[in-house]
Amino acid sequence: MTFLEQLAHASQAQQSLLCVGLDPEPRKFPPSLGTDAAHIYDFCAAIVDATHDLVCAFKPQIAYFAAHRAEAQLERLVAHMRRTAPHVPVILDAKRGDIGSTAEQYAIEAFERYGADAVTLSPFMGFDSLAPYLKYHGKGAFLLCRTSNPGGDDLQNQRLADQPGQPRLFEHIADLAQGPWNLNGQLGLVVGATYPEEIARVREIAPHLPLLIPGVGTQGGDAKATVKAGWRVNSPIIVNASRAVLYASQGADFADAARIAAQALRSQLQPVS
Predict the structure, then answer these.
(1) Is 95 a catalytic residue?
(2) pLDDT digits over 184-233, tens only?
């Protein structure tokens, strides 16, 4: 199946819009694992085992693995996901953005080394920085559009004087992703949950693209407002929560607590027709 087919199947089968982000921080691990980065796989695999029937996707953040020289553990973790939950797509949160042969290497990293179903990308170097990823038939690519960090205003909220109607930069990105850049129907957009009115604006511009929406939970995004702004029939959203699930408990019951937190978030994210 293509990434979009996987996503639709997982969302329907699990009755879920929830994505669990895997951002392992060894200093936050329970005492039973200690703070040794060698246990990153053990921690994340336990979270996967506890939540895989509650989610529509998993999103490992590559920096949390690479910072601890744990790339091999990430490869092992993706293989574990394939065995445990083969129906749940894996989105590699890498936010790559480069051109030419370098972008080709990053695409190999995401789709061949790690075997991800989709990847997050920065679009600010233009279409040629995205093209190598789109050569992988059926894979997905989520473009940073309107991010949840305060500094996103520095660029994303600025108006483009040379474009008709002077759209804001994030609106222009959404328009490109919905239109000329989406050659094979592989693109989606990243829009932060802390700006529900702008989620709604992106959905207006890009009515059919999947939206990856981080920021629910610890970052303060409102689950119900997020769903209301972004979800439409046949217009998928993937709502990511990381710390609120991963670190629901720092005790020996961390996996059970993660499951309870994921269940609560999944319930809050149910769409209202």
Answers:
(1) yes
(2) 999 999 999 888 999 999 999 999 999 999 987 655 568 888 999 899 88
**Which amino acid makes up residue 166?**
Q
Cα 88 to Cα 35: distance, rounded to the nearest angstrom: 29
Which residues, at least 6 apart from 67, have a Cβ–Cβ distance to it below 8 Å? none
- Given the residues 28, 95, 135, 228, select the one marked as catalytic: 95
Radius of gyration of the chain (CA): 18
**Do residues 18 and 262 lie in contact, with contact meaning Cβ atoms separated by under 8 Å?**
yes
Q: What does the alpha-carbon distance between residue 73 and residue 143 come to, in Å, rounded to a whole number?
A: 26
Which of 15-24, 80-89, 163-172 has the least mean pLDDT?
A: 163-172
How far, in Å, CA of 89 to CA of 234, rounded?
18
- Indicate the DSSP class of residue 270: -
Count CB atoms within 10 A of the CB of residue 166: 12
Q: Whose CA is closest to 129, among 102, 152, 149, 153?
A: 102
* 3-6 long-range Cβ contacts below 8 angstroms, 24+ apart: 3/89, 3/117, 3/118, 3/138, 3/139, 3/140, 3/186, 4/140, 4/185, 4/210, 4/236, 6/87, 6/88, 6/89, 6/117
pTM flag (> 0.90): yes
Spatial contact of 64 and 23, defined as CB atoms under 8 Å apart: yes
Q: Which CATH architecture has domain 3-268?
A: Alpha-Beta Barrel (3.20)
For 100-116, write each residue's pLDDT tens digit.
999 999 999 999 999 99
With b for 16 or more beta-carbon neighbours within 10 A and e for fewer, the 121-160 pattern comes to bebeeeeebbbbbbebebbbbbbbbbbbeeebeeebeeee
H/E stretch holding 142 reads strand 140-146
